[in-house]
């Protein structure tokens, strides 16, 4: 309100001077406090975009699909005791990380719709849970790729090293690393009142610029560039090994691998490009000086970030439902009716007859 009153007074003084003098700027004094960088930036903020219904609906959709998909993965793995393999241990932890990420989305949907109404403690908790799920998801995708690489390319070495206790140890290390990385988010995040009276859940540290810059660099380098380079290398070696093998299933395996790489790149690369641009802005590189360019960057950020969120819905399809054993367990789960059992028995009889004729 103070800034608005000052701007109004300046406007009235300017009009009065215009009538008395040919040069309207000759007797006009401008105060730096009335024209801060914050006020200039606010002119380029699209409030309709931040309060848009589309973002809220999309958050709820991602939440629903992620809970259904990853919840089903957890249920099947626990009910049918499929945790006797290294791959399933990693799939279980990936599903947990996706669920952690998805749990925070309804809170951010309400925040976008109105303001942060859940208090300071939940602000800290949801910020920590959000980044914990975000970072752990990337690392579990990475170790699953390395595990596949060892199982296909280095079969002998993998036979000795791919033990369940090794997988559990790796998972514990990943969770510990991600918790340590998200501690600053939990400690520094809190609720503050915006200049327009709305309550925000933001970083409260005085040196906000430094933490934002460090977070952007950490996100781009440690949680995208390095993992993506390792994933591409591992899958390239896997494809090379599969092509050299004489098996009719290699083409399907190669297709699945290419789909996994494409989905990972499409979901994470655009988002990290936007984060990198934001990092350059924090360093003072004048990439986007015009207001329209800043608004275009905001639109790109919101759209690309929402595409990235869908990755937690796709993980169950790519890493669980594709597996043969998991599909069998899923079929057994949904096929408990008498008609379905009869169909399975009939199929089993036909297969046995075919094999006996051969």
From TrEMBL:
One of its GO terms (biological process) is immune response. PROSITE patterns: G_PROTEIN_RECEP_F1_1, G_PROTEIN_RECEP_F1_2. GO terms for molecular function: C-C chemokine binding; C-C chemokine receptor activity. The chain crosses the membrane at residues 57-78, 90-109, 129-152, 164-183, 217-236, 256-277. Residues 69-319 form the G-protein coupled receptors family 1 profile domain. Coiled coil: none annotated. Keywords: Cell membrane, Disulfide bond, Endosome, G-protein coupled receptor, Glycoprotein, Membrane, Receptor, Transducer, Transmembrane, Transmembrane helix. GO terms for cellular component: early endosome; external side of plasma membrane. It is found in: Cell membrane; Early endosome. Belongs to the G-protein coupled receptor 1 family. This is G-protein coupled receptors family 1 profile domain-containing protein. The gene is LOC102362607.
């Amino acid at each position: 309100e103070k800034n608005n009153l000052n701007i109004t007074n300046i406007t009235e003084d300017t009009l009065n001077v215009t009538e008395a003098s040919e040069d309207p700027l000759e007797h006009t004094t401008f105060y730096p406090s009335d024209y801060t960088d914050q006020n200039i930036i606010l002119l380029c903020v699209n409030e309709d975009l931040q309060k848009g219904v589309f973002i809220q609906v999309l958050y709820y959709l991602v939440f629903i699909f992620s809970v259904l998909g990853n919840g089903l993965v957890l249920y099947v793995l626990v009910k049918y005791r499929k945790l006797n393999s290294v791959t399933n241990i990693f799939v279980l932890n990936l599903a947990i990380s996706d669920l952690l990420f998805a749990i925070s989305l309804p809170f951010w949907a309400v925040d976008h719709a109105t303001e942060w109404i859940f208090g300071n403690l939940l602000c800290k908790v949801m910020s920590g849970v959000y980044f914990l799920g975000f970072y752990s998801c990337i690392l579990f995708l990475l170790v699953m790729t390395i595990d596949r690489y060892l199982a296909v390319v280095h079969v002998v070495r993998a036979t000795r090293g791919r033990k369940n206790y090794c997988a559990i140890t790796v998972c514990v290390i990943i969770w510990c690393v991600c918790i340590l990385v998200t501690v600053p988010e939990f400690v520094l995040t809190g609720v503050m009142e915006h200049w327009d009276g709305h309550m925000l859940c933001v970083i409260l540290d005085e040196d906000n610029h430094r933490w934002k810059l460090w977070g952007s660099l950490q996100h781009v380098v440690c949680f995208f560039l390095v993992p993506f380079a390792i994933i591409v290398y591992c899958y390239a070696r896997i494809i090379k090994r599969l092509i050299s093998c004489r098996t009719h299933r290699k083409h399907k395996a190669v297709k699945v691998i290419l789909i996994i790489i494409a989905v990972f790149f499409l979901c994470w690369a655009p988002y990290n490009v936007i984060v990198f641009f934001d990092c350059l802005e924090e360093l003072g590189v004048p990439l986007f000086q015009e207001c329209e360019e800043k608004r275009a960057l905001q639109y790109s950020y919101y759209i690309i970030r929402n595409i990235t969120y869908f990755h937690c819905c796709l993980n169950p399809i790519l890493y669980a439902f594709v597996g043969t054993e998991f599909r069998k367990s899923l079929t057994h789960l949904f096929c408990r009716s008498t008609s379905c059992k009869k169909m399975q028995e009939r199929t089993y009889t036909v297969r046995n007859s075919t094999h006996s004729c051969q």
